[in-house]
Amino acid sequence: MKLTKTFAEFQLGWPHMHYVFAVLCLFVVVYKLTILLAKRREALRNFQAFSGPPPHWLFGHVLEFKQDGTDMDKVVKWGQEYSYVFPIWFGPFLSIINIQHPDYAKTILTSSGVRNVLLICLFCCFPHSCTCSSGNGLLVSEGQKWFRHRRLLTPGFHYDVLKPYVKLMSESAETMLDKWESYASTNEPFELFKHVSLMTLDSIMKCAFSCYSNCQTEGGTNAYIKAVYDLSFLIDLRLRMFPYHSDLIFHLSPHGFRYRKARQVTLSHTEEVIRKRQEALKEEKELGQIQAKRYLDFLDILLFARDENQQGLSDEDMRAEVDTFMFEGHDTTASGLSFILYCLACNPEHQKICRKEIMEALHDKETMEWEDLSKIPYTTMCIKEALRLYPPVPGIARKTTKTVTFCDGRTVPAGQWFYSVVIIKE
């Protein structure tokens, strides 16, 4: 009796497993496609009351966005044409209702059946795979976790904690201005936003994490800031390319590999900041000892925070909170500052008044102090007006958890995405 099989016979096996595997794969694809088509039909039925720009059957409205800086203008134009509420399709299956009317925004922002979703200045519709760049921190957490973390972090925003930051921010600004003087002497143009990003990253690392990285003076491109740029670009790209809406396809793609690589850079950066601070504090046993020696920063509060049960933040929660404040804290601030400088450059008459007011507030001092901030009301108004015209985060995203009815009687079901855009009237 022959008890052995040839390799080919064993490979085919019974009942020809490679055929079975192919059939199973086909079944999964058909099943998934059936579900997506059913969701699309349901969405189209729900959108019957919402008119909007006609979408392409496959690409949706993706081809309308040229990525040339006019995307927001396109959305605002559609809002004026379609009564400020209209659906946008990103591929054949993903749809978002865009809101620009204040009454609709009020319903979305005040309804109990709507969940907050993280944005990085762009749409982000993948809360599990993209939440991206900042973990599940205070910005995107909800429920009891949000209340607990917010209570633990509240001491970090007290005036007594914030006042010493003014001096540290001034030091970072001086480093940036010293670099700009070298360009002024040669009349060489440079990208302002890059320098401002390094300055805001340097500031938040000094103020919130007691970390002196010298990121403004080190040569080359800062790895963390480059990773932030890559993550923002890849999240936007994933939204525009509907095959990437699948976690599996995106994970296996070159862009998915690039996303994970950039994400690892931000994680490593965060973990290094926490590790260095823990080492610096390992000889301190009580919070009072630290307060007696130095001001309390944000990371100290995270490390020593305890709730009513004397439970602190887990390592994962701590990384998420540090990542959130590091990522959102420096990037949005850099965007706001850059546009403030742009507005002042475009309006030299207001720039002149601001300069005069600041010089009078400083007297013979070289840098601003906390008490001087109340002495520059005109400059403060210019800053607020620039932020109104060019908000660092021009929109917010929400997702319904139950049926929501708007002021005009139109309704949307649970599971629908909304994007509310700030309307600027110059």
TrEMBL record:
InterPro entries: Cyt_P450, Cyt_P450_E_grp-II, Cyt_P450_sf, Cytochrome_P450_Monoox. It catalyses: androst-4-ene-3,17-dione + 3 reduced [NADPH--hemoprotein reductase] + 3 O2 = estrone + formate + 3 oxidized [NADPH--hemoprotein reductase] + 4 H2O + 4 H(+); testosterone + 3 reduced [NADPH--hemoprotein reductase] + 3 O2 = 17beta-estradiol + formate + 3 oxidized [NADPH--hemoprotein reductase] + 4 H2O + 4 H(+). Gene3D superfamilies: Cytochrome P450. The chain crosses the membrane at residues 20-38. Its cofactor is heme. The keyword rRNA-binding does not apply. One of its GO terms (molecular function) is aromatase activity. Keywords: Heme, Iron, Membrane, Metal-binding, Monooxygenase, Oxidoreductase, Transmembrane, Transmembrane helix. Belongs to the cytochrome P450 family. Catalyzes the formation of aromatic C18 estrogens from C19 androgens. This is Cytochrome P450, family 4, subfamily T, polypeptide 8. It comes from Neolamprologus brichardi.
